[in-house]
Amino acid sequence: MNQTVKRVYMDNAATTPVRPEVVEAILPVLRDGYGNPSSLYRSARDARVQMENARKTLAACIGASHEEIYFTASGSEADNWAIKAAAKMNQSKGKHIVTTVFEHHAVLHAFKALEKEGWEATYVGVDDQGIVDPEQIRRAIRPDTVLVSVMMANNEIGTLQPIAEIAAICKENKVLFHTDAVQAAGSVPIDVKELGVDMLSAAGHKMYAPKGVGMLYVRRGLRLPPLIDGGAQEKNRRAGTENVPYIVGFAKAFELAVAEMPETAKRLTEMRDELIAAVLARIPHARLNGHPTKRLPGNANLSFDFIEGESMLLLLDSMGYECSTGSACTSGSLEPSHVLLAIGVPHEQAHGSLRVSLGKFNHREETAPFVDALEQVVTRLREMSPLYKAER
Question: What whole-number distance in Å separates Cα of residue 49 and Cα of residue 65?
Fold first, then answer.
């Protein structure tokens, strides 16, 4: 009889489990709060009150005003809306836009879409630890630049960017600035007024709320045209009946994340650092990708010579550990992660990458057995690798 393998989830950067408290907040709205918040009768008014209370909660989580929060179906939608709408509303000034080479594809593909429509894009590089130099952003800005977009925290290697410095440069040059905070929101403190950003994207499923709900912060006074037409929802900015249950859940999750952030960040940082130190001490030909400290609390991205990331994932999965890889093999592409290539990781080593992203429901007792399992997997794969045999 096969013994059931205990599952340990370590891919919280991809998505998070939904917290019990969030489920409890959502269920009554699903059951009883079915009114359309755009209608006028009692159940509709009740739904609108719940939605607007959630908007106020979400605004408070990032130091914004409630009228600056707009609901979306995802972080990707929020990114696309901010980038495409901001560029098009200012095209009379110019058609030059700036981002970095290692953004999430929601940003990079939005930029590529604008390039096909006639915009010119500049893609700024990062250093070997994945940090953007604000002065490179300054040098990239031209008189016809209308938008800069730089993510707050990288989704693969977890590096945190100097957003306030970049925002100040953009303000000085009268250029709109957007930050993709989908990975950062709920994990690190955010105050949009202190940061000085014009637009900020976030998503519920990265902070223990359900998939399918996100938000875009738009600074007061900035009137973005809609990305989706067809209705008067969200002050005529985003058509589509609002997902009130998930919006309520999103607000509950963000509120809890902010309240627990000091304790959670400390615990995950300690677990992350212990895991990284153990891996680097025990497994030769391994490296940490990204800055050692300027990174998200639970993110550990590691590369291993002579092996391929997808094989590591499958073997770790068979042992009960669920992680992610920077390699794009599962998408049918032979190219490794654009993020790892951007920080100078060689192609061969980039293919052997592993992202471990710890979250609220991970415990210190899980990390040592995971390192044991990882060491076994790497050793096994290297025994089958002709490249490793040649190196020895």
Answer: 16
